[in-house]
Amino acid sequence: MFSCKESFKQSFLKRLERLCGKSFHDSSKLDQYQTLSMMVREYISSNWIGTNEQSRSNQNKQTYYLSIEFLLGRLLGQNLLNLGVRGIVQRGLGELGISLDDIEETEIDAGLGNGGLGRLAACFLDSLASLDLPGHGMGIRYKHGFFEQKIVDGHQVELPEQWLKHGYVWEIRNADQAVCVYFGGEVKMAQEGGRLRFWNENAEVITAVPHDIPVIGYKTKTINTLRLWNAEPCSLQHEQNILKYKLDTEAVSECLYPDDTHDEGKVLRLKQQYFLVSASLQSIVKSYKKNHRSLYDFHKKVSIHINDTHPALAVPELMRILLDEEKMTWEEAWYITVHTISYTNHTTLAEALEKWRIDLFKPLLPRIFMIVEEINERFCEWLWEKYPGDWDRIEKLAIIAHGEVKMAHLAIVGSYSVNGVANIHSNILKEREMNGFYTVFPSKFNNKTNGMSHRRWLLKANPPLADLITEAIGDKWIKDPESLLELQPYAHDAAFIESFQKIKRQRKQILSDIIKNSTGFAVHPDSIFDVQVKRLHAYKRQLLNVIHMMYLYNRLKDDSAFSIYPQTFIFGAKASPTYHYAKKIIKLIHSVAHKVNHDPEVRHSMNVIFMENYRVSSAERIFPASDVSEQISAASKEASGTGNMKFMINGALTIGTHDGANIEMLERVGPDCIYTFGLKADEVLHYGEKGGYRSREYYQHDARIRQAADQLISGFFEGEADEFEQIYDSLLAHNDEYFVLKDFASYAEAQERIQKDYRNKRLWAEKAVTNIAHAGYFSSDRTIREYADDIWGIKPHPR
Ligand code: 26Q
């Protein structure tokens, strides 16, 4: 049906009528989107079946990537590209008078994630399939993804997200493969055949129904699976209060939790975690048992990866299955568990390390709690033997302590591999945050620097740039991203540079049109597009950017000799609903935007734009249109960052701190092609531990800081007298936890370098092309190959 334009048109029209019961002329964009997507599903079905059959019959080792989040975004466009049929479809639809771009715009983003961690999982799926690796995702089919952001009078308002409102064409409900997940009740035990048998009575039972989404690799026959679990009632006949049971059950997969480390752990969140883990492990074990008589070699054929600690209950759950259902001894079960599970840490922020209070944990998961207790006791005994008398060490490393279960400790003890997501982050884990564990398990620790799918973030998001690159060096970079290095000589090729500049200008025009349509404000595409898009968090320091904009505004107003190359500051960010400080920063950005954009003396030199509801699909419009990428976290706080890489591959230059993967970007492009500034990680960590920083001194000695800080509380922003007091206090009364004031001068100086360099268009473009040439390393293909080789032990199986 996709072999040529004519047969495509015929199939499309026929299916549209059958599927929608309408003629083409009466059909809506949504009808057309659903028809086309169904055609893709049908087209790949035999390869999907084939991939599954191949793994069954060849008994290849399989990896399952357990993640509480998968931030997929839209699938139609990427799937058409990966299948190599986008051109045919585009031309065929064109002849019918419809635009493929418009149809793709109809798809609602699958936004089942908060940000970096969830999007990383989605990029990993693309790379696994594209590299013919047997790796599958398992997650939760939240009815509502991450909230939709509206801005009302400069304030963030959250609306429930509704991605399923038209149904979801990419999923297949496999009700026949549903499993039961048990909560609460009492654990019973009895002697049986010389061993203790455990079972649960009076538990609440929830059915987990898998919804499978095909993961289509780039120009390969491999189709992997993303399995998302939906929570549904079991059989209703035993329940007293049927309606309540139905609602309680469905609540488990109702909503994605926002990343809110300020919030107390909620029992429903723990329920979600166990729901994901128990359903996934049962299904993995079931499918393994179809081909194997016993589970003694399980770890040789299955690897289970946990994306942060959210699925860390995989450790006790696998133990439960092996002990209680497979009747193994503790030692047998433990050996298999620790050789099956591997774990990635995504943060060193102390407040983000997951802990669950025992009084919450134990009643919800009584048998799992018993197993965690046993793991903890055996681990502590082992420590005692290794370090007799060292109570301090045991207290620090114990899995259960002070009335809480520490999920990171459980994940480290119960796995064979622990990795961080950038070199600096992995080193901080080893030398600081997890040093106690590194001392006892040095060989478990390793680094896997993050990556992004260059096929989504360049090939799909920026087709003209992708075409230009292919014209220059051929198309092998699509399968082999590190061959982008061959672009380096083109940094000095006048024709190439000119084409690059033209494309960047076009993409800035497109984004300007989007901004005009959504905000009513016209920005100039010839200004520097300086962009900070990411979750709103104090450590990411959107505030540093804001204080700098306020300084520029003040200087433009006060100093008639001062001028700048026009610069448009673009923001996109969602704040967690209960993170009040972050919401104030959003309000502040809007207040500054209002001042700047309406001031006739300033608005031709600078503009400030906040893009509402930042998400995967808007990111695809933003990265290609960016000149400057803001990666300005307080050093040591951003584990890796992945947006930094998406900007880089689209030829934006980074202004960034010595943090996360920025450091590895600098190592590749050299100091002339990236604008680094600010404190180093060891300095930040040293101040954090030893003190010695006094933010007030920077306020007193730097008039630029003083003026901007005072404006936060002086009524400078009309009608909002005490709106920004909390921000002012964070900088001065609370001694500026993230060193915004300390790094200000260095940041302003880096911005001045940008101002100077941007005027030399040719040189700027050369630097941009150098960035693109070195971005191949940051493809998730490289990351996934490293995981496959060093951690999972899986091999490509092309069909
Ligand atoms: C925890 C408890 C309760 C509710 C939610 C959460 C929760 C949810 C999501 C905690 C954290 C997250 C997400 C974290 C995250 O995205 N971390 C980012 O991971 C990226 C991929 O490795 C890194 O590039 C970023 O540096 C890191 O911040």
UniProtKB/TrEMBL annotation:
Pfam families: Phosphorylase. One of its GO terms (cellular component) is cytoplasm. GO terms for biological process: glycogen catabolic process. Its EC number is 2.4.1.1. It is an enzyme of class 2 (transferase). One of its GO terms (molecular function) is glycogen phosphorylase activity. Keywords: Allosteric enzyme, Carbohydrate metabolism, Glycosyltransferase, Pyridoxal phosphate, Transferase. InterPro entries: Glycg_phsphrylas, Glyco_trans_35. It catalyses: [(1->4)-alpha-D-glucosyl](n) + phosphate = [(1->4)-alpha-D-glucosyl](n-1) + alpha-D-glucose 1-phosphate. Its cofactor is pyridoxal 5'-phosphate. The modification N6-(pyridoxal phosphate)lysine is found at K646. Phosphorylase is an important allosteric enzyme in carbohydrate metabolism. Enzymes from different sources differ in their regulatory mechanisms and in their natural substrates. However, all known phosphorylases share catalytic and structural properties. PANTHER family: GLYCOGEN PHOSPHORYLASE, GLYCOGEN PHOSPHORYLASE, LIVER FORM. Belongs to the glycogen phosphorylase family. This is Alpha-1,4 glucan phosphorylase. It comes from Bacillus swezeyi.
